[in-house]
Structures are given as C-alpha cells and as structure tokens.
Design a protein that fits this description.
- With about 260 residues, this protein is an alpha/beta fold.
- The chain has helices at about 15-25, 35-50, 65-75, 105-130, 150-170, 190-195, 200-205, 215-225; strands spanning about 5-10, 30, 55, 85, 135-140, 180-185, 235-240.
- The longest helix is centred in the middle third of the chain and has 29 residues, at about 105-130.
- The structure holds 2-hydroxyethylsulfonic acid.
- 2-hydroxyethylsulfonic acid (8X3) binds near residues 186 and 247.
Length: about 260
C-alpha cells in the first residue's frame, strides 16, 4: 500500500478511524475526512508519530455538496490521484417507528448515508477513470439486507448503499476500477451512542452478552478487499459476530 492514496470519509471514529489505523500501518498515504477537526488532528498526530506516512486532513460534512466540491478541488499535486475511496461516513439517529420518526433526523441520515456517498463517488471516480485505476469501497450494513424493528429509514439507506455499489460496478464493468460493499453486523462503536441520541447505557446494553465486532475487525475486511490483486474484485463481504445470524437474530448470554 506504500504508493497508494486512500481517502476515508467519517474517519474520526469507529470503522473509519480503524481503517485509517490499518491503512497507515501498511504505509498508505491518507486523506482523512470528518466533521470533527480536533479528532482528525489527534488521529493524524498519532499515526504520523507511529508510521512514516503522509496524512492530509479534509474536514467537511459530506451532506454539504458545495463544501465537499471545493474541498476535493483544493487537493493539489499527488493528493488528487486518489487510489482508494472508502465511503464510510454514515449514521442513524433514533429507533423510532416509521410513522413516528423525526423528518429532520431522516434528512440527516438520508443525506449523509446516500447523498453524501453519491457526492463523493461523483467527484472522485472520474479522476480514477482518467488514470485507469481505482477502488471504491462502500460501507453498507447487514441492516441493508432486511428491515428490522426501529430501523426502517436506516435499513433503507443501507439497502441503497448496496444497490448504488451494484450500479456503479455495472457502470464500471468495462474498466479496471473495482467496487466493493462491506456489510458489517454488530460493531461496538460510537455509532450506537448516536443511534440512541447520546444514551450510552442504552447503546452499551445492545452488546451485553455478545462478543461484538470492533472497528478493527471491519478494517481487516476493508483492507483485504483493497489488497486483493487487480484482477480480483471483492464485490461484497457480510461480516458479523459469531453469535449473530441476521440483522435481528443473535444469541446473547444471560448476564444476570
Ligand atoms: C449497523 C449494524 O446491526 O446495528 O449498520 O444494523 S446494525
């Protein structure tokens, strides 16, 4: 990965942060995006202290198309030549029923998970095409396989991520570019704290009695896809804890 430039959205926490650590450990140059600049600066300092890697920070909200466009256009020199785009930025807010949800929160979730991913793809893939190489890795979810209670809108956005990846793979079929969807199951990160609107106890309860995945576990699958030889396109990886079977079926040990 030494000669590769990897762009990761949502890199300040969870799976995105774990991907930054993994790819830095393998010598890749990183463009790290998130809304939280102080966290990105901390991560950059940590990684450049540990590994001989170049890291460029690009703080923006993927929902803001104009800001994203100027940020990508601001990339100079070799930073423009992105080899791997990891579309990771995504979130869910709330566990409401579809007919009781908050439309403003739907906007945030849909605009981030679907339109943000599309904006990044639209801005970065043409350059990859021109250079004749590139890999787009979209972070989907087991939630995109089937709806589950309290997950209606989020599940719909993750189903969309799967379909957008499939569509892009079709559009790029006559090119050397590759498209991968990584679909994580239960991963214990700050993601669930946001889902429960900041209620850490509720988020923690979700993982009681089950050995959930970590962001690092998912970063391994992301890296595996990226490191495959150029003629190998890992289309999808669905990865879940050993005691999870579907989006709603998991086995949790009684912790009483
Ligand atoms: C997150 C995985 O199981 O919370 O995408 O839906 S799950």
């Amino acid at each position: 990965m030494k000669d590769k430039i990897v762009f990761i959205t949502g890199a300040s926490s969870g799976i995105g942060e774990a991907c930054a650590r993994k790819f830095a450990s393998q010598g890749a140059s990183l463009i790290l995006n998130a809304r939280n600049m102080p966290k990105l600066v901390g991560l950059k300092n940590e990684l450049t202290g540990k590994y001989a890697v170049q890291i460029h920070l690009l703080p923006f909200d993927v929902r803001d198309r104009n800001v994203v466009t100027s940020a990508i256009q601001s990339l100079s020199g070799e930073w423009k030549d992105i080899d791997i785009l990891i579309n990771n930025a995504g979130l869910v807010i709330g566990v409401d029923k579809e007919y009781e949800g908050n439309p403003d929160e739907w906007d945030i979730v849909i605009d981030t998970n679907i339109k943000g991913l599309l904006t990044m793809t639209r801005l970065i893939v043409p350059g990859m095409l021109k250079r004749g190489s590139g890999h787009i890795i979209n972070i989907g979810s087991i939630a995109g396989e089937a709806a589950y209670p309290g997950g209606s809108v989020y599940c719909a956005t993750k189903a969309a991520v799967g379909i957008l990846s499939d569509g892009l793979r079709i559009d790029l079929v006559n090119t050397p570019l590759r498209v991968t969807t990584i679909k994580p199951g239960m991963v214990e990160t700050n993601f669930s704290v946001v889902r429960y609107r900041g209620d850490k106890a509720a988020a923690g309860n979700l993982y009681k009695g089950i050995h959930a995945l970590t962001g690092d576990d998912i970063a391994e699958s992301v890296y595996f896809s990226a490191a495959a030889p150029p003629h190998v396109q890992i289309a999808e990886i669905l990865v879940m804890p050993t005691n999870q079977a579907t989006g709603i079926i998991s086995f949790k040990k009684d912790m009483e």
